[in-house]
Amino acid sequence: MTGDRIVLGIESSCDETGVGIVRLGADGTIELLADEVASSVEQHARFGGVVPEVASRAHLEAMIPTMSRALEKSGMTLDDVDSIAVTAGPGLAGALLVGVSAAKAYAAALDKPLYGVNHLAGHVAADTLEHGPLPSPCVALLVSGGHSQLLLVEDLAGKITEIGSTIDDAAGEAYDKVARVLDLPYPGGPPIDKLAKTGNGCAIAFPRGLTGPRDAKYDFSFSGLKTAVARWVENRERDGLEIPLADVAASFQEAVADVLTGKAIRAIKDLGLDTLVISGGVAANSRLSGLAAERCAAAGITLRVPRPRLCTDNGAMIAAVGAHLVAAGAEPSGLDLATDPGLPVSQVQIL
Ligand code: KG4
Ligand code: ZN
Questions:
Q1: I want to staple 315 with a disulfide (CB 3.0 to 4.6 A). Which of 19, 77, 172, 221 is the partner?
Q2: CB 18 near ligand 1, within 6 Å
Q3: For ligand 1, is residue 285 a contact (CB within 6 Å)?
């Protein structure tokens, strides 16, 4: 269609190699055409966490096959692509380099503009692929393996402000560590979520970090919760008692969901806003989305959670940020684009 632009997105910040393709309509609509992901998660499982060198090597091997699958799914060829977006940070240094190098090669070979974008903005932009444009401003709760942040989102192409973040572990990291304590596989989110369904979330009163009257209103802390779960399990074992795994999982999950939703809703009320977006890998958690739905409904807040496939790392969310930048007329990044493993969320693009 005339005026439409095809934006390709490449993601390689952690253990997922993602290639997504979207169509940016002349009216600003963004349509998802392809979202292909290759994961190296199984190669990391026995280490209980992502091994950076293994992830980089896996990205190298998966990049071209994932690109081919995405093009095939979308019915496009490389010649149809108008712009290329790539995750330039934050993430693992070596992993980011593979995606950025690939994106530069495609941009140079096709003579198309390149946009180095922020992975965290991508997690929020993922929701626009499912639910359309975001009201501005709104609050986003970004919860993944590496990040737990409350964001004030005014413009996905440029104005995202952090209003709170974790002072220690990310929510997903807490899931992964607690899974280890319970002898569950890595990554820990999905097996804990499943086990918790058969347990009682009120069985054990695990601590809710940073929820005292003097604590930072919008910051999170999950390290104490993780330690409390480990101690509780150790004490039972020492006393020769059986561990009620489902109750431990459900009670841990309840503590995480309670704090995350409580603080997000408080931020929205304090700011006088009406929409909450939850994204990132932990947004796939059934209790988090369930409790958020209950509390948002009670508070008259609109809740938006992308489907689980769009919550975890993928290339479509990066293509979506690229499309927002293209629509806003942003200047492309140079072919000398550098990665930034510690890129702050306030910087949506690296030039
Ligand atoms: O966003 P993501 O795919 O990668 C990062 O950018 O970190 O998030 C991965 C994290 C892992 O810690 C994983 O345990 C967690 O998301 N996760 C979940 C669920 N599915 C994935 N946590 C809780 N419940 C889930 N259902
Ligand atoms: Zn992520």
A1: 19
A2: no
A3: yes
Q: What average pLDDT does the segment 202-225 reach?
A: 97
Q: Which ligand is nearest to the CA of 87?
A: 2
Kindly tell me if the per-residue pLDDT of 22 is higher than 70. yes
* 147 CA closest ligand 1 atom index: 7
Residue whose Cα lies nearest atom 10 of ligand 1: it is: 145
> Is 313 touching ligand 1 by the criterion CB < 6 Å?
yes
| Distance (Å) from CA 172 to ligand 1 centroid | 5
Instruction: Specify the 3-state DSSP secondary structure of 78.
Output: helix
334 φ/ψ sector (left φ>0, alpha ψ -120 to 50, else beta): beta
Contacts of residue 107, defined as CB under 8 A and 6 or more positions apart, other chains included, come to: 84, 113, 114, 335
Rounded distance from Cα 251 to ligand 1 centre (Å): 18
Task: Characterize 171-191 residue by residue with b for buried, 16 or more Cβ atoms within 10 angstroms of its Cβ, and e for exposed.
Answer: bbbbbbbbbebbebebbbbbb
| Average of per-residue pLDDT values in the chain | 97
Whether the model clears a pTM of 0.90, i.e. scores above it, the answer is: yes
pLDDT score recorded for residue 48: 85
Work out the angle between the directed axes of helices 245-271 and 171-181 (0-180°, nearest 10): 170
pLDDT tens for 119-160 read 999 999 999 999 999 999 999 999 999 999 999 999 999 999
From the CA of 280, the nearest ligand is 1
- Pocket flag, ligand 1, residue 148 (CB < 6 Å): no
Residue linked to tokens 């990044």: 333
Averaged pLDDT, 58-63: 98
Cα 37 to ligand 2 centroid, rounded to whole Å: 13
Using one digit for the tens of pLDDT, what is the confidence trace for 232-276?
999 999 999 999 999 999 999 999 999 999 999 999 999 999 999
Triad 332, 85, 90: Cα angle to 5°? 100
